[in-house]
Design brief:
The chain has 356 residues and is of the alpha/beta class. It has 11 helices and 9 strands.
């Protein structure tokens, strides 16, 4: 074990957009809207876009097949990096997902970032013929097999992956809520994915998100191999609007709906005051100036290399998501050391790497 230290945040800290594809629309329309949001983020200088995988439960997430969706997005964008946040690896066939990821990476011109985790609603495991209690063991086994496949090493029976892609080994990210998970990601030399919010324990019900995530980062850096550059993603729930009253009105609608459906008993309930919900679920809501001040108070963000924003659980209408993306890029991100663009840049699909 060696000790590594993350330097002060560079002015080039990467800026990302994250979606669970939760627009209030049928599945096909959710996919169209999310693709438009990602293209809009690219036009405003975002460096990456990330999508979550969820099975069965459309209120938690709208996308069971992130690699298929990202192939669709890759054909409509040129520069923005495309990430999974996350693939629920215990529910996948590791060799098949390795193959799909390589093909997507080739079709996108090498833009795939591959985030993995043990997650998933416990009942989802039953439908796949698995036990949720075994997820950690299965995750470790599948991740090891994924690495072997991408490295081009012989698999059981002697076959090797075609095409293989050793370069993807440097683009694995692990999501975790725990110090042990941070150490595991660091020891592997992978990126660390920190959540937008985390449950509080009975022992520390009022702990800040930074309090919970500081020791995870410490463990990650402590175990990171010497000479390996840290990759630390800080995901945050952010909704920026031109009008404070409108931002709070939509936050109240979205948060109360989300908490009533998926609430965490360790945090405020759906009938709590709005400001208690915003604080309890680690939201950053308001005008650009208000959101800048709120995010600046989050000590975790001083240590991340990738700052990734999502509108969940406000989930405003699509036009306001696009406007929030614009305000993040032009006002919020520059104030936090992550440069976006002051104006949109159109993307010509004919200049895609495979058609240019």
């Amino acid at each position: 074990m060696t000790h590594s230290h993350l330097p002060s945040p560079p002015t080039g800290r990467r800026l990302g957009f994250f979606s669970r594809l939760l627009d209030d629309a049928p599945a096909a329309e959710r996919y169209r809207l999310a693709a438009e949001q990602i293209a809009h983020a690219e036009s405003f200088g975002f460096d990456s876009a990330w999508v979550a995988q969820h099975h069965f439960h459309e209120a938690e997430g709208g996308l069971p097949s992130p690699l298929v969706f990202l192939a669709y997005v890759a054909a409509r964008t040129r520069r923005i990096r495309l990430g999974t946040g996350i693939v629920t690896l215990p529910l996948e066939n590791a060799v098949r997902v390795a193959e799909d990821a390589v093909v997507l990476d080739l079709l996108s011109g090498g833009r795939l970032e591959f985030g993995v985790g043990t997650g998933g609603t416990p009942s989802s495991f039953t439908a796949f013929g698995l036990r949720s209690e075994d997820r950690a063991e299965v995750f470790a086994s599948h991740l090891a097999l994924l690495r072997e496949a991408w490295a081009g090493r012989p698999l059981a029976g002697g076959d090797r992956l075609y095409p293989s892609s050793p370069r993807l080994l440097d683009r694995i990210w692990q999501a975790t809520f725990s110090v042990a998970g941070g150490a595991r990601a660091g020891a592997a030399g992978d990126g660390l994915m920190l959540s937008r919010t985390q449950p509080r324990s009975e022992a520390a019900p009022r702990a800040s998100l930074a309090d919970l995530q500081r020791p995870i980062i410490d463990a990650y850096l402590e175990w990171l191999p010497e000479g390996r550059a840290p990759r630390i993603m800080g995901s945050r729930s952010v909704f920026v609007a031109d009008d404070r009253g409108e931002a709070l009105r939509l936050a109240e609608l979205g948060l109360r709906r989300s908490v009533a459906r998926l609430g965490d008993p360790s945090r405020p309930g759906a009938d709590a005051p709005l400001q208690a919900l915003i604080a309890g679920y680690d939201m950053h809501v308001g005008t650009p100036a208000e959101v800048i001040a709120s995010l600046a108070a989050d000590a975790t963000l001083e240590r991340v290399t990738d700052l990734v924003f999502q509108v969940h659980s406000v989930d405003p209408p699509h036009p306001l998501i696009l406007r929030s993306i614009e305000l993040i890029a032009t006002e919020v991100a520059p104030a936090l050391g992550s440069p976006g663009r002051t104006t949109a840049r159109s993307v010509d699909p004919s200049t895609h790497p495979l058609t240019a």
